[in-house]
């Protein structure tokens, strides 16, 4: 299993392009980004920050770092419209196409799908039907660009109130129902520890559709050793199950970012993260 890092949560005091070599110098060979046209700062403020795909590709190649994914829209649907409300389908597909074009031109292989929030007054099954219809259309559009999709369940108890997809098994079943090799699941260990626990069990039974992992300590969403999850054990169990993809660090560092990455590598390799 390879270690990656979310470039939006690390090295936030630097311009985006400077975060890429910083992550590589700290020991990561993989990174991922959120939105292609804005930067997320502390407190959730968003500022326009259009990125040039050629510049991103060149910076990644020079640093020896592969950028695995970009995010289509905000978890709650405030950016991109989301999949839960069919009235926003056109907005969602338009933003998806824009993201796919960026990913293709920047050499990024995947785009992350957040479903959006529940629709007031709708049943789970009704909203699920809308999400599935939108997913099918998104998969078709992604296939035309040669881009894979990674759908992400999140927690609605702390970070994303009213988010629709909060269950990894439900997300895995949706991926199987779509039945396209273009669509896989992200299992975010931080979010799913909050929602369901039994991380090893869920990952093992859904490994056929898991395409990516995220990690962060809970509670607090900080370093992996600052929480109730023994990531040293979990890391070995995931590898033993046969997963050989990327697990990206998606947390707010309490240490200087490069030091946080280095200590995380040490923690996972030798069990000493303090």
Helix coverage percent of residues?
Answer: 40-55%
Largest sheet: number of strands, sense, barrel closure = 9 strands, parallel
Low-confidence stretches: 41-45
By CATH, the superfamily comes out as Divalent-metal-dependent TIM barrel enzymes
Count of DSSP H/I helices: 9
Strand proportion, as a percent range, falls in 15-25%
CA radius of gyration? 18 Å
Q: How far is it from the N-terminal to the C-terminal residue, by CA?
A: 22 Å
The outline comes out as globular
CATH second-level architecture = Alpha-Beta Barrel
**Within the largest sheet, what's the order of strands?**
5-2-1-11-10-9-8-7-6
| Class inferred from helices and paired strands | alpha/beta
From the 3D structure, determine the CATH topology. Answer: TIM Barrel
Mean pLDDT, to the nearest integer, reads 94
Structure notes:
There is one protein chain. The chain is of the alpha/beta class and about 270 residues long. It has helices at about 15-25, 55-65, 90-105, 125-145, 170-180, 190-195, 200-205, 230-240, 255-270, and strands spanning about 1-5, 30, 40, 45-50, 65, 70, 110-115, 150, 185-190, 210-215, 245-250. Helix 1 packs parallel to helix 2 (about 55-65), helix 3 (about 90-105) packs parallel to helix 4 and helix 7 (about 200-205) packs parallel to helix 8 (about 230-240). The model is unreliable at about 40-45 (pLDDT under 50).
